C-alpha cells in the first residue's frame, strides 16, 4: 500500500509540476513573466530567451510523455527498462539543476525553483527505483 501510494504521489506530482512548468515557460515567452528571472539570470536578449524557452518546453514535454507512458495513460506501451533509464537520467538532471539553482544570481529562482527541482529529483528517483511493473494506478 505505502509503495503504491508513494509511486502514485511521484507520478501525479511529476505530471502536475511538468504541466505547470510548461505553462510557466509559455508565460515567459509571451512576456507575462520577465525572462530575467529564469536561466540563472544569464539571458541577455529576447531572441536568446526564445531559443532557451523553446528548448525547455520541448524537454519538459518529453519528460511529461515519459511519466504518462510509465503511468499507463497512453495506449502505446514503452519498454519499462527504457522508462527506468529515462527516470535515472531525469534524476541526475534535476540533481544538477538543483545545484545550478542554488548558485543562481537571481534570488527568486533560488528560493522558488530549488525546492521544485529537489521534488522532481526525489519523484524521479522513486520511479527509477520502483521494482514492480504491475502495480495499478
Automatic annotation (TrEMBL):
Regions crossing the membrane: 12-37, 49-70, 82-100, 112-129
Top-level lineage group: Bacteria
Keywords, sorted A to Z: Membrane, Transmembrane, Transmembrane helix
The protein's name in its UniProt record: Uncharacterized protein
